[in-house]
Design brief:
binds 3-isopropylmalic acid, 2 domains, about 40% helix, Isopropylmalate Dehydrogenase, about 350 residues, 12 helices, ten-stranded mixed β-sheet, alpha/beta, globular, binds magnesium ion
Length: about 350
């Protein structure tokens, strides 16, 4: 299995290093990984003047899946937009048409008290946020800063969704719900935005093909509130790129820490990129403080969705559960006063549990 490994910036290299150790451990049990490393984000800019160097894209094109760390950092914030680290990530998503972004938020029993919410609100939580990843205001044209008719400067972006883009993420949502609790909640802002009224209309139409799945609709502001009030009411949430970005960060805190949430970004052929939903956390980079579990759980998603290795995926997830049961905690998931382990000690523990 050929894996493109793009560690990126900030804590990216540290957390990816732990996922690679888990792969090495799986390798001892018969799984063969062939790794190719590529520079991306700020590291891509430093190496080749481009957040997605041609060489890196070539490595990804030759791979069965991409394992991605994180990108971004203050050093690159003043670069022109096209050269900023985030563009490396956005271009990869667009290039491979990775429209379906799966962001599962599950609460490990041991971490129910690590959430800032009451344990009874989050205990047993198991929801899936399905975020559309290749369209919406993230990619809509035109965009920019211009001088308007009144001679004042204004910034503008375009929210845009085509029918086929909505249908394919809708289908993915219904299919995902079918394999789970059969409940799909489509999140929009149909009371204000034309684009998302259209989104809602297409979801309703697509529902005709999935009568066994219950479809509900919720405005995004209400969804933000309901996720905190009673998150267990949800099974699968399907939403656009922008709303999904925001709601998935919010949902991560239900699980205790953003350091716990993995993601898979898939195209129609099942090719995917796997990354923790958190960013590069430059403030803690290089200090051994980062939680590698979101990346290790992303590796499990890779095994399941792109490499057809469901058993190995379960083993990795079971190993993560075990280390949490053993009481190992990086700083982000520790209770006040509880002993913490470093990034690599957490990796050690997962490898040992495997
Ligand atoms: C995410 C991140 C990215 C996004 C950034 C880094 C461009 O926040 O994956 O959620 O906005 O999609
Ligand atoms: Mg985000």
């Amino acid at each position: 299995m050929k894996i493109a490994v793009l560690a990126g910036d900030g804590i990216g290299p540290e957390i990816i290093a732990q996922a690679l150790r888990v792969m090495e451990a799986l390798g001892k049990h018969g799984l063969k990984f062939e790794l190719s490393h590529g520079a991306v984000g700020g590291a891509g800019f430093d190496a080749a003047g481009d957040p997605l160097p041609a060489e890196t894209l070539k490595i990804c094109e030759g791979a069965d899946a991409i394992l991605f760390g994180s990108v971004g950092g203050p050093k690159y914030d003043s670069l022109p937009r096209a050269q900023r680290p985030e563009q490396g990530l956005l271009r990869l998503r667009k290039h491979f048409d990775l429209f379906a972004n799966l962001r599962p938020a599950t609460v490990f029993p041991e971490l129910a008290s690590a959430s800032t919410l009451k344990p009874e609100v989050v205990a047993g939580l198991d929801i899936l946020i399905l975020r559309e990843l290749t369209s919406d205001i993230y990619f809509g044209q035109p965009r920019g800063v211009r001088t308007n008719e009144k001679g004042e400067r204004e910034g503008f972006d375009t929210m845009r969704y085509t029918e086929s883009e909505i249908r394919r993420i809708g289908k993915a949502g219904f299919e995902a719900a079918r394999k789970r609790g059969k409940k799909l909640c489509s999140v929009d802002k149909a009371n204000v935005l034309e684009t998302t009224q259209f989104w809602r209309d297409i979801m309703i139409d697509e529902h005709k093909n999935y009568p066994d799945v219950e479809l509900t609709h919720m405005y995004v502001d209400n969804a933000a509130m309901q996720l905190i009030r009673n998150p267990k009411q949800f099974d699968v949430i399907v939403t656009g790129n922008m709303f999904g970005d925001i709601l998935s960060d919010e949902a991560s805190m239900l699980t205790g820490s953003i350091g716990m949430l993995p993601s898979a970004s898939l195209n129609a052929k099942g090719f995917g990129m796997y990354e923790p939903i958190h960013g590069s956390a430059p403030d803690i980079a290089g200090k051994g403080l980062a939680n590698p579990l979101a990346t290790i759980l992303s590796l499990a998603m890779m095994l399941r969705y792109s490499l057809n290795q469901a058993k190995a995926a379960e083993r990795v997830e079971a190993a993560v559960r075990k280390v949490l049961q053993q009481g190992l905690r990086t700083a982000d998931i520790a209770q006040p006063g509880q002993a913490t382990v470093s990034t690599s000690q957490m990796g050690d523990a997962v490898v040992a549990a495997l």
